[in-house]
Amino acid sequence: TATPAAAFFLLLTTATLLSISIASYADSLPYIWPLPAFFTSGNATLSVDPDLSLSYSGNSAIVYDAFQRYKSLIFKHATRAPGPSRLLRGPSFDVSVLQIVVNSTNEELQFGVDESYTLRIDKRDSGSIVGAATIEAKTVYGALRALETFSQLCTFDYGLKTVQIYKASWYIQDEPRFAYRGLLLDTGRHYLPVDVIKQIIDSMSYAKLNVLHWHIVDEQSFPLETPTYPYLWKGAFSKWERYTVEDAYDIVNFAKKRGVHVMPEIDVPGHAESWGVGYPDLWPSSSCKEPLDVSKNVTFDVISGILSDLKRIFPFELVHLGGDEVNTDCWESTPHVKQWLKDHNMTPKDAYQYFVLRAQEMAISNNRIPVNWYVSSLK
Amino acid sequence: TATPAAAFFLLLTTATLLSISIASYADSLPYIWPLPAFFTSGNATLSVDPDLSLSYSGNSAIVYDAFQRYKSLIFKHATRAPGPSRLLRGPSFDVSVLQIVVNSTNEELQFGVDESYTLRIDKRDSGSIVGAATIEAKTVYGALRALETFSQLCTFDYGLKTVQIYKASWYIQDEPRFAYRGLLLDTGRHYLPVDVIKQIIDSMSYAKLNVLHWHIVDEQSFPLETPTYPYLWKGAFSKWERYTVEDAYDIVNFAKKRGVHVMPEIDVPGHAESWGVGYPDLWPSSSCKEPLDVSKNVTFDVISGILSDLKRIFPFELVHLGGDEVNTDCWESTPHVKQWLKDHNMTPKDAYQYFVLRAQEMAISNNRIPVNWYVSSLK
C-alpha cells in the first residue's frame, strides 16, 4: 500500500440528515452513531432492568452471544441489585425484555448481506406488565446492528445508578448506506497479536463497520502460515510474530460473530520481498529482491498456492491482490529476467500488466473477486 | 503529585543475579521476569497438555480463577486438538497436571503478605504416567506469583503447534525482594474507564507488581462517589467520567484476585481545588481556590468523611494523603484565613504543618497508616 505507516481508514456512515435539526439534537442525549436512516423519538425516560432477558425463538448462536456481549456492555457499571424485595414490589423497570425476531435462518456472511433492522422501544403498555423493546431484522447481521443501536440508547445514570433510555418512545428503521464499510489493518509492517486484532474487530462493530481489510503480508514480513508453501512464514519478523492457520480461522469466526467480513490481501508483485526469505527463487536475484520474479513459474505457483490456502480460511468473496507501487528496475537489471522480457517481447510495463492480470485470473479461478489498488488499474 | 503528566512508576524487581551468566542466558529461551530469587534449570523440552488440569484440594476462588485465567493465556493460540484418538494413543504430553498446594486458608491481602513460592517442573517420572508441575506456597498470593512464573515458562511452538517448556527440569524458589512494588494511576487529571483500570491491574500482575497507588482525585477533577459528602463528585470532569462506590469495590476485588493492593490517595491541601465544585466553602475564596481552607472546620469534616468512606471501600492498611506542592499564597491573600493565622499565631508554614498532621491523625484514627509525598516531610 501507498505509505509504510498507512492504516487506511475507509469510513462510510449510514448518516442521513432527514429533517432533524442537528444543532438541537447535538445538545440532547442520547447519541446514536452512525445516525440511523430513519427514526422518531419522544420525551419519556425509561429504566432498563439489569436482569434484562432475551425473548428469541431462533437458534442462532450469533444472536445469543451478541445479546450476552451487549448486556455486559450496557450494564458495565454495577446497578442497584434488584434483590429479593423486588419480587414483593413487582417489576420496577420499564424495559425488562428485549425481543428479537430474525426472519431468515441463513447465517452466511457475504458481501451485501442484509443488515437492515427495525427497533422499537415503547413505554410500558398499560395492557401489559412486562416492558419490552423489540428488534426485527431479516438476518442475524441486521439483529447485530440493532443491538448496537439499542446499547447506544442505554445510558448509565450515575445518580440513580440505573440504566436509562432517554427520549423514548423510539422507532428506528435503519439500513447501511454502503455495503462496504471497511478498516485496513497492516500486519505486514507491524505485527499485531491476535487479541489486539480481536479488540479492533470489536471496536469496528461499535461503529457498524463491516469489512476488515487484512493487509497480512508486505515487504517487511510474512506472518501467516500457508500450508501449501510452509516456508513462507520464515519471512515473519520473528518466530513469535506469526499467525497460524488456526489463528486466522479464529479471527474470521470472531469477526463473523460481529458481522464483520475479513478480506485478506497479498500485495503482488511490488510488496512481496519477505516471500523470498523462505523461497529465495522468488527474488529476481539475491541483490535485487523486488518485485517478485515475473519470469519464473514458481512465482505463480506460490501465488496460486497462497490463494488456495486463503480460500480455505476466508469465506469472503473478495480477495485483495494489491498491485501498487511496482518499481520494475529489478526486472531490467537482472539478466535472466531481462532476457525473459526480450524473449516475450514485453516492456516492463507489459510484464507488470501480465503479472496483475495473471494473479487476477488465479483469484477468479478460486471463485474469488479480485480487488486491486487503484494505482494498478490497467489502461 | 509533582508533574501533571506524572505516571510515577515504581518498579522493584526480585532480580538476584546469582552465579548465572547473563550473557549466555539472554540468548536462550525462556525468559522469566522478574528473575526468581533462586532457580535451577536443565536441558529437557517438555510439552504441555492443552487440557492441562488443576490438582488443588483447597477451596479458594482466587486459585481456581487464576488457574483458568493463566490457562487461557498459556493456550491463547489454538493447539492441535487432542481428539478422540488421543485416548487410544495414551497421554502424549509431558505435563498434563498442575498441582497447587497452599498452606494457609487466610486470604487477607495486607501489606507484607507472604508471596513466596516453590515451583517444580520435572520430566515425567518413570514411575508415573501422569506428568505434573507442582506449586507450593504459603498463601494464595504466592500461588498467583507461581502461576505467573509457570505461564512465562510456557512457550507456544509455531512449528509443532504445541506449548513447550524449554530448559526443564525447573526448580524455582522465589519471594519478592520488596514488599511494595507499585504503579501510580492518576485519574484526577485523566479519567480512565473501569475496564482500562482493570487491564492495567492485569498487566501489573504479569510483572508481579502488587500495589496500585490510585491517585483518584486532584485539582482538575473529583471522579469518586463519596456517600458522606455526595456533592464532591460534582467536581468530576463530566457526569460520565465518574466512579461509583460499586465501581471502586469492583476494582478492589478485581485487584485482590490478582494479588494487587489498592492504595487510594487524596492529595491535600494543595491538590484539591475540584472539591470546591460541590462544596465551595472549601475554597478560601471564589477567586482563590487552593489550598483547601485551613481555617474552617468543614475542611476537616470533609477529609474525615472521605477517609471513612475510603476505609469502607479499600481494605489496604496504607492511605496516601499527598501533601506536596502547597502554595500558601491563597491563605495569606484571603482576609478571613489571614485573620485565622494571626489568631492562632501561625505562619503559613506552621498552618501547612498543622494541616498535614491533622489529616494524618484522621487516617490513624481510621486504623490506616498515612503516607505522604516526601516533599511534605516535616522537620
Automatic annotation (TrEMBL), chains A, B:
<dbReference type="InterPro" id="IPR029018">
    <property type="entry name" value="Hex-like_dom2"/>
</dbReference>
<feature type="domain" description="Glycoside hydrolase family 20 catalytic">
    <location>
        <begin position="178"/>
        <end position="373"/>
    </location>
</feature>
<dbReference type="InterPro" id="IPR017853">
    <property type="entry name" value="GH"/>
</dbReference>
<dbReference type="InterPro" id="IPR015883">
    <property type="entry name" value="Glyco_hydro_20_cat"/>
</dbReference>
<keyword id="KW-0326">Glycosidase</keyword>
<dbReference type="GO" id="GO:0016020">
    <property type="term" value="C:membrane"/>
</dbReference>
<keyword id="KW-0732">Signal</keyword>
<dbReference type="GO" id="GO:0005975">
    <property type="term" value="P:carbohydrate metabolic process"/>
</dbReference>
<dbReference type="GO" id="GO:0004563">
    <property type="term" value="F:beta-N-acetylhexosaminidase activity"/>
</dbReference>
<dbReference type="Pfam" id="PF14845">
    <property type="entry name" value="Glycohydro_20b2"/>
</dbReference>
<keyword id="KW-0325">Glycoprotein</keyword>
<keyword id="KW-0378">Hydrolase</keyword>
<dbReference type="Pfam" id="PF00728">
    <property type="entry name" value="Glyco_hydro_20"/>
</dbReference>
<dbReference type="InterPro" id="IPR029019">
    <property type="entry name" value="HEX_eukaryotic_N"/>
</dbReference>
<dbReference type="GO" id="GO:0030203">
    <property type="term" value="P:glycosaminoglycan metabolic process"/>
</dbReference>
<dbReference type="InterPro" id="IPR025705">
    <property type="entry name" value="Beta_hexosaminidase_sua/sub"/>
</dbReference>
<feature type="domain" description="Beta-hexosaminidase eukaryotic type N-terminal">
    <location>
        <begin position="32"/>
        <end position="153"/>
    </location>
</feature>
<protein>
    <recommendedName>
        <fullName>beta-N-acetylhexosaminidase</fullName>
        <ecNumber>3.2.1.52</ecNumber>
    </recommendedName>
</protein>
<feature type="signal peptide">
    <location>
        <begin position="1"/>
        <end position="26"/>
    </location>
</feature>
<feature type="active site" description="Proton donor">
    <location>
        <position position="325"/>
    </location>
</feature>
<comment type="similarity">
    <text>Belongs to the glycosyl hydrolase 20 family.</text>
</comment>
